[in-house]
Design a protein that fits this description.
- The complex is a heterotrimer of chains A (284), B (332) and C (345).
- Chain A is of the alpha/beta class and 284 residues long.
- Helices cover 18% and strands 31% of the residues of chain A.
- Chain A has two domains: 87 residues, Beta Barrel (Elongation Factor Tu (Ef-tu), domain 3); 140 residues, Rossmann fold.
- Chain A starts with 10 loop residues before the first strand and ends in a 6-residue tail after the last helix.
- With 332 residues, chain B is α/β, with parallel strands linked by helices.
- Chain B folds into three domains: 137 residues, no CATH class; 41 residues; 101 residues.
- Chain B is globular.
- In chain C, 29% of the residues lie in helices and 20% in strands.
- In chain C, a hairpin with a 7-residue loop joins β4 and β5.
- Classes of the chains: A alpha/beta (284), B alpha/beta (332), C alpha+beta (345).
- Chains in contact: A-B, A-C, B-C.
- At the A-B interface, loops of A face loops of B.
Chain lengths: 284, 332, 345
Amino acid sequence: MNKIVNPYQPSYAEIIQTKQENSSIKSFLLEIPEGIQKPIMPGQFFQLSLPGYGEAPISVSEINDKTLLFCIANMGSFTNKVHSLGVGDKIGLRGPYGNGFPISASSNSNLVLLAGGIGLVPLRSVVSYFFHHQENFKNLEILYGAKSSNDIIYRDDVKQWRHKPNTIFKLTIDKPEKDWNGNTGFVTQFLNPQSSDPSEVLFHLDKDFSQTKVFVVGPPMMLNSVYQALTNINFPPEHVFVSLENRMKCGIGKCGHCNAGSQYVCLDGPVFSWKTLQSMPNEY
Amino acid sequence: MINEIRDAIIQYLKSVMKENDVVLALRSSSTPGILTPCILRNKADLDQIEAGFFHLNNLAVYLSEFFQKENRLSTLQGYLYVLCKPCDTKAVTQMISDQQINPNKLKLVVYACEGMADMKKVKNEIGLDKDIKAIDLHLTELSLTLLDGSPLSIPVSKVISSKCLECNKEYHLTMSHVFVGDEKKWKSHPYSIATAENKVLLQDQKKGKDLFDQLKAELSACIRCNACRNVCHACFCSDRCIFDKPKMTVGFLDKEISPIDNILFHMIRFYHVAPNCTACGECERICPQGIPLSHLYEYFHRLMQESLDFSAGSSDSMRQAMLSYRLGEDLV
Amino acid sequence: MKTYQISKSQLKQLLEPYLTAETQLIAPSLNPLGLISFNKIQNINEIALNTSIPLKPSKSYLFPESSSLVQFDEKNPHLLESDISQKKQMLFGLRPCDLAAIAYMDSFFSSNISDHDYVQRRNNTLILGVACEYPSNACFCTSMGIQPGTSIHADIFLVPSGEDFLVEELSEKGQEYLASISKGWKEASNETLATQKNEITEKTSSKLIEKIDLSKIRGRLSETYNKDFWNKYSEACIVCGACTFDCPTCSCFDMNDSMISSSKGCRYRSWDSCSFADFTLHASSHNPRSSKLHRLRQRILHKFQYTVEKMDQWSCTGCGRCIRVCPVGINTRSILKDAKEALGE
């Protein structure tokens, strides 16, 4: 009789490198263990686990041939324990799960990424994919809104991004701060039809929005204001994609926790087009 | 009698209900023998109210929700009238004593109750292959229509709840309330329809290993659904409940089901609520597995009463039995 | 596929092979708490077939209340095994509603990424259904398109016929099993079988309190999302979860780790309920379904709308257990009727 595969069984990945991104987020570079199904696409997530501490769904931040980067916020007992781990320690890994961002359907498009706070974590995988496959895309625009200057993550990477071709990067923090000379306010300020920046995608490079996909990841409030802003400029909802946060336990569409309408966020998502989201029950 | 009481309750409420008042009462459901709690805001809806023999629910459990979550009473402009059997008032009193609810906007509508049905006993009377289509009370007989259309009559004495057989027809209320029905007549009319039964499952004599084995056997059916906790008026930790947090974080118990974990769950829960338990019996009625929880808890309840001279629900401003002490305890 | 006719005494031959130490026979019987539920049978006399539908479903034998998914071993901290009961079992006495529920659970647990625990237990299970002659006052299987006298979702299906039983082979597994035990059994014609099934269907259907015509609202229930009628049910709900625990198609679970030392223990799952307040509580403390109304509506819409959208089938089989166990009388049939009215049907 065929042995039935246990889908809850994790493989173990060794930590190769760690880095503290801000006061609560730490990144971990993991070696991809054997048996993990490839390809792994931006926007997908893995269930990370430690015996005795349970599991948590974490999106991939960067996908390389032999390694994966995970950026984990210290939010509960599991993530707290993970933060105490160092190089050489092992973390349980199972996945990849979820549908990921529609990368292949976005070829020859511009990509506009709207990241709210920790939302930059999964979007970073899109950025890194873009740089590795630049010939497949047009322009990349990264719009990042952090809560405060202390919360900004990927500072070193951002410096590099600013200098890449066909790429613009804009940063804002919620409220003005002493010693901050950059933008303040919400990230929706960048969705301004009055924009005078000629490299800006939405209002200069692709005025009819026919060749642009927008990926949004952020807290519910931010999603609401982005929705308003995009509706105001009549951006087509089928080209806007959101990665939903949700309470996930099994990651494989069985435990029911992430069930939203007829969809399971872990199976049919976590990335959904605005259009699909509109057909989901109001609570989402 | 029973229908008269219902009509009297409705009449009373119609006469006092003002525009911003809210009534927490019961209405009929599509399930024979069960009433559904309802929140009524209009005088016109008052006719839906049911009361009497099938008033099995203790409505006190909705009060903390009313106060804490769905409708903070501060936004209630009028009064909240709550339909109570005399025994239910103990739960309300205890909740006031626990500072879970504020009696200022509360008015209890207590009525002359002649006992309530135990639907498990009713089901036992009709046989395992039959079921009830309709049920009604006529004086001292319960008249049923079964699914196949045949009628059946059962004397009330056979199906009345055991708890009611021991009712001493007393209730103590200092807060605002009204008694619907002839209170003197109700008190003077001793409960004589049926004989009391020996309802204590756990004999006092059982101690040590025997007691443990009995607990293990009774609680082996528990599926840790937490229904008993959710219906308990004395369990008010609500979203901070220790049982919602598995052991790997801060909890005491895993959600795994094993005989020992089940005993631990009920012991921990009971000792937490013991000072506030008014023995209303809802935990037993609600248990989907049919475990006689109220009987189990009653053993420990009596231990508490005997050793601490304490009876929950008897006053709305008492010391918490397990959280305070007197310098000289007589019994301990 | 054959059909046999056997007497009540021959029923033993059908069941006895599963009364060994290496196997288990699960059938309806009276449990120590006075309820008819599906229990492990030690003696054939315990089996209770002529009763109203068992209050407890049989789902815990395919989907236990708690079971270990992944083991952690201190000798090999990263080596993982899973330990599922390998016992062969027979589930006997399941009525068409429960059989349809198992069919739903089968397709749910094996779809996409297969759940090994359920699939392995299911592979070790032989299912013997029985036509339903004694419904409860809550039953509404006919409203869900199920007929009490027949089912295709079993390995073997029994149809009471006077003092005898008609035994219908439905699957290859069932055929194989019957071939090994049916020595000297009389065969019956397809006609006899069909007639008897129809008779039982008619008789039992007439005992049901009502049949609700859901054809015009199938797929339209999401339009009731903002209607008023939900409130009068959710305000009474005490969030006990009994409806979900007794429902044969409810399969939601929680996952946690349980350790007996720092490196030995397991990751287990236990039954959970979408009625509970923390079911959709996100790590960020956002809770999309924080009110009882949200959760009651979710449970109903899930059974009657979302699975229709996703799998083109109801996930409710009308067994009525949610109605029977609800301590505050929330009645799924009433909710469906209110939904119909709200949609103008």
